[in-house]
Amino acid sequence: MLNQIRPAIVMIVCMTILTGLVYPLAIAGIAQAIFPYQANGSLIHRDGKIVGSALIGQNFGGETYFHPRPSATTDTDPNDATKTIAAPYNAANSGGSNLGPTSKALVDRIGADAAKLAAENPGVPVPMDLVTTSASGLDPDISPAAALFQVPRIARARHMPEEAVAQLVRAHVTGRLAGLIGEPHVNVLELNLALDSAGHS
Amino acid sequence: MTLNGWLQVALFCVLLTLLVKPLGGYMTRVFAGERTLLSPILRPLERGLYRLSGVDDTREQHWVVYAVAMLVFSFAGFVVLYALQRFQAVLPFNPQHLDAVSPDLAFNTSVSFVTNTNWQSYTPETTLSYLVEMAGLTVHNFLSAATGIALALALIRGFTRRSAKTVGNFWVDMTRCTLYVLLPVCIVVALAMVWQGVPQNLSAYTDVATLEGGKQLIAQGPVASQEAIKMLGTNGGGFFNANSAHPFENPTALTNLIQMLLIFSIGGALTNVFGRMAGDQRQGWAIFAVMGLLFLAGTAVVYWSEAAGNPLLAHLPLDHLAGNMEGKDVRFGIANSALFSTITTDASCGAINSMLDSLTPLAGMIPMINIMLGEIIFGGVGSGLYGMLLFVIVAMFVAGLMVGRTPEYLGKKLEAKEVKMAMLAILILPLSILGFTALAVVIQPGVSALSNAGPHGFSEALYAYVSATGNNGSAFAGLSANTPFWNSTLGIAMFIGRFLMIVPMLAIAGSLAAKKIVPTSAGTFPTDGGLFVGLVIGVILITGGLTFLPAIALGPVTEHLSMLAGTTF
């Protein structure tokens, strides 16, 4: 037993240095050199300011922007540190609703959201992703159907022809990799940025 | 379910099967100490480590010494990780100035990572510094994985050696595994992850002014380096709270595919290592077939149930073809979320790309069953194979009873000692799972942590002990597990599930190694054919069913029936 103690201590120290410092710091060095944009979080700049990350969903509630999916992320209540409050798209505290399918809270929430959206665009079935929260709470994407569903509202609010907005959506659809892997999706922040620059021109 | 969804499942299966032989061949050479492509660079490093630590790499160990070395090493790792968390406030690489971790949480997290569980009672973004993530968690992702693989090697040697006193040298197995297998793969994968968008920096969190004039604080960190080993070592502990659902951990469909392949790669390849060391690769493929069939069955149920969606929403004006999207990210959708959830619980990984707590009841039942069966469907690196071989021993025992012959496997007679030890190792899991769940659902500190009411709440508690004892680490994450009661009982469950299973397993290895090899005769049961595969699957399902059906009936089954009856809680 005693003669296993020296290897245990030496190995834990050496392996900590090798796999815990040399390895991650070397990867960081190489990554910063060859993929600086990705290594720093795919940050998007506009007019010299950071307006978000291409990979992290951002909250939009106004009429003039495409809305992302509902988000279940929370934050500490500023008035009482033992409680949490809803804070959609809190990118420093990711997470989902964790509501099970038989949860009354879930069924009620989806029912209310579905009714609101159905009134906005009557006769069209509401895309499922617009009434369900993502696992990360930071889903940057919505389905192409969910983007097209919002086109009439955006067109009205921005006084743009619906076709022009729909065109923009179609240009921002990312398909499956090699036509096979993953699901088609639209990045909401990038679409909204494109919407802003289309408005300017 | 869609054709495209099934094609993605098929693509995964093909790629996995293609990986088995080359990786298995490489690993066999590494563990035999033969020269490989990387030897010129790594051999001097390996020698240096042995010299510093006083290890004689030519001397092998008796199974008891092997077990002691593993336990002492795990304990040393536990102490270092606990200390790092308790002192993180005064250590470097802490740009968010996070405070010391509380004692019960630090205990839970240390046990969690040393046992390859990676259960996370904490929210990483708001709890752990970059130093703890790198020099603490990343390190144990490597070492607990290497330890698991070393243990599987010891058992394989037990089966394949004749009249031997030793089962290998723990220090050599662990070192070679880390240097030649885990580290090189991780370097390549980590860089590929960065290319796809996974961050790798030491910066403070980024302040963002959003388009609508709001504020957003974006967590950063050395994510990619941890992501690679988190999947390859079937550890599963996320850099962020949302784990592989977080777009920084798993940004694209490609990273998702790579992550899924990494989870099964070593577990799959070890079946080939087993076959090669036994001198007959078909023995390995038979084990691979058992695992593959159980995996496909689980995937089919999860995919079907999730694609069917939630009937409680059927009356709403929704696009119901989309299936159950609560707790799923759009870029993965139903198929990739179902596939990932099955893979991560077949293996002892526990990373998630969708929220298991929000799965439909029957889909949520599969991850639970996968872990209850012992995580032997590819399983944790190493632990999957030795867990499976325990079931093989029991299956051969049952076959022996049927025909009235002393059971044999690979020419080794399986006698009372081996069968008793195998049963002991297998039965420790239900003792911990059912015992702790029963306790937690009747006392206040247990019940108060549940976030869902009704049968789903019971599932949350059951899943937590299933996951901890099985060293999986995934969760029905609504559970508020960061309390002294849950942190300590789950910590104990993780300890039991890892070490109390390992010791009887190593005893089997030692006992088998000492035996002679009986020549094959006409009466030998062939262990590389369909009958063997069917028998092992039968024994696994019957053992799991007899043990866990009552608990499953109280949780997912009751919930499914309530859902069909339109009841909410």
Write the layout of secondary structure elements.
The complex is a heterodimer of chains A (201) and B (569).
Chain A (H helix, E strand, L loop, with lengths): L4 H30 L1 H4 L3 E4 L2 E5 L20 E4 L2 E7 L17 H17 L20 E2 L1 H6 L1 H8 L3 H10 L1 E2 L10 E3 H13 L1
Antiparallel strand pairs in A: 1-2, 3-4, 5-7, 6-7
Chain B lengths: L2 H29 L7 H15 L9 H24 L16 H12 L9 H4 L2 H31 L9 H27 L9 E4 L5 E4 L4 H10 L20 H25 L3 H28 L24 H14 L14 H12 L10 H21 L4 E2 L2 E2 L2 H25 L3 H4 L7 H15 L14 H30 L16 H35 L5
Antiparallel strand pairs in B: 1-2, 3-4
Structural class of chain A: alpha+beta
Give me the Rg of chain B, rounded.
Answer: 23 Å
Taking pLDDT < 50 over at least 5 consecutive residues as the criterion, the unreliable ranges of chain B are none
Secondary structure class of chain B reads: mainly alpha
Shape of chain B, please? globular
Helix share, percent of chain B: 55-70%
Residue fraction in strands of chain A: 5-15%
Quick one: biggest sheet of chain B? Answer: 2 strands, antiparallel
Radius of gyration of chain A: 22 Å
Q: Reading side by side through the largest sheet of chain A, how are the strands ordered?
A: 5-7-6
Low-confidence stretches of chain A: none
What does the average pLDDT of chain A come to?
A: 94
Taking the alpha carbons of the first and last residues of chain A, their distance comes to: 76 Å
Order of H and E elements of chain A = HHEEEEHEHHHEEH
For the report, how would you describe the main beta sheet of chain A? 3 strands, antiparallel
Number of strands of chain A: 7
